[in-house]
Amino acid sequence: MTTGTGQEERLARAALTRVFEPGDERGGRWLREFGAVGLLARLTSRDDERDQLTGAGEQRLGGYRRRAAAVAPERDLSVVTALGGRFVCPGDREWPSQLDDLGAAGPIGLWVRGRPDLRIWSLRSVAVVGARACTPYGAHMAASLGAGLAERGWVVTSGAAFGVDGSAHRGALAAGGATVAVLACGVDVAYPPGHAELIGRIAEQGLVIGELPPGDHPTRSRFVLRNRVIAALTRGTVVVEAQYRSGSLATARGAQRLGRFTMGVPGPATSGLSAGVHELLRGEGVLVTDADEVVELVGDIGDLAPLRRGPVLPRDLLDPVSARVLDALPARGAADGRAIALQAGLTADEVLGRLYELHSLGFVERHGDVWRPAARATP
Predict the structure, then answer these.
(1) Most confident of 53-57, 58-62, 225-229
(2) Beta carbons of 370 and 335 less than 8 angstroms apart
(3) Parallel, antiparallel, or unpaired: how do β-strands 236-240 and 125-130 relate?
(4) Which of 19, 31, 65, 95 has a CA positioned 20 to 30 A from the CA of residue 54?
(5) Phi, psi of 166 (to 5 degrees)
(6) Can you point out the beta strands (E) in 8-152?
(7) Fold of 314-373
(8) Confidence tier at 311 by pLDDT (50, 70, 90)
(9) pLDDT 10s digits, 68-78
């Protein structure tokens, strides 16, 4: 078991993951005020101690108390242990401290499947998220980014959903790299069911994590709230295809609020699936097209993407004076040395020497006393 948190505190936090929904700031404030053990005691105690829990109406507080009365944290911990997993709490050596940036909305704890150390992996992690109903282009770009980041020693984090998420995970796995799936359900629940095999592979080769206890199923709100963990856990978020209303954009905006890097992969201007990404890029998002450009942004000083330029032509290798003489030749027809010198603004002798040099390189042809560009010369 992960060390750093006492057993009583661990049991209380495990129990509270069944009481409060992810991101419940009211519960987060109470947790800070009373501690996990104290908060659980107040939720399950007599009325005079319950009155210390301010800021919630009777109906809401009654819901918390009914949930608290039904918790069985020992059973949940046994379930996750049987899966080869664990429950990681703030204060544990494995706890990623960057999650504390979420403040009162931070996770009570994280249920984890997989052998690697979550804190270590999170130090070099990038989120790759995007549309579920992505295009073949989006799937290709997500897989390429996942593989490229993994090959460069970065952990690819996503939500295990259909579309971009799944492609990013598969790209990382295919490269033999590291990937983390952040679920909006219990880590023993394969959702979506069509990704059961993929989630199993991630648990074997990487990490599957979530805030919800074993057996819990996802809801619409839990998907939205899951995104804040993806944003906080990683150094930056890359969005590959997203419409204007997209959970992926919520992840990117959450990353921006937390001071993380936000990036987007451009697509066709006519594609509705790229419209949200383009809106992100019009703001504070940074345009990226491959893993090198992502690493240049989120990595250490010196992790620079290779210089991008078109093909180098033979003419590009000429010195400035020779290029000036070549430019002075007429596009059609021929000219003698004096006319070329006048056009180039050089002496006749200097131009003549350059012309013979250009002739030897195949750029010009000589016909008696006149010169013309060689018909086969590369422009």
Answers:
(1) 225-229
(2) yes
(3) parallel
(4) 95
(5) -60, -40
(6) 85-88, 110-113, 125-130
(7) Arc Repressor Mutant, subunit A (1.10.10)
(8) confident
(9) 999 999 999 99
Q: Taking Cα atoms as reference points, which of 163, 171, 162, 168 lies closest to residue 135? A: 163
Compute the mean pLDDT over every residue in the chain, rounded to the nearest whole number. Answer: 92
Cα 264 off chain centre by: 9
Query: How many of the other CB atoms lie within 10 Å of CB of 324?
Result: 16
> What one-character DSSP code corresponds to residue 71?
-
Q: And the tokens for 300? A: 């250490």
Tokens of 206: 């990487």
Phi/psi for 103 (5° steps) reads 65, -135
Q: How many C-beta neighbours within 10 Å does residue 360 have?
A: 9
User: Could you state, in order of their start, the residue ranges of all structural domains in the chain?
Assistant: 19-70, 97-298, 314-373
Distance CA(91)–CA(96), nearest Å, equals: 9
What are the backbone angles phi and psi of residue 126, rounded to the nearest 5°?
A: -130, 135
The dihedral region occupied by 113, where left means phi > 0, alpha psi between -120 and 50, and beta the remainder, is beta
Architecture in CATH for domain 97-298: 3-Layer(aba) Sandwich (3.40)
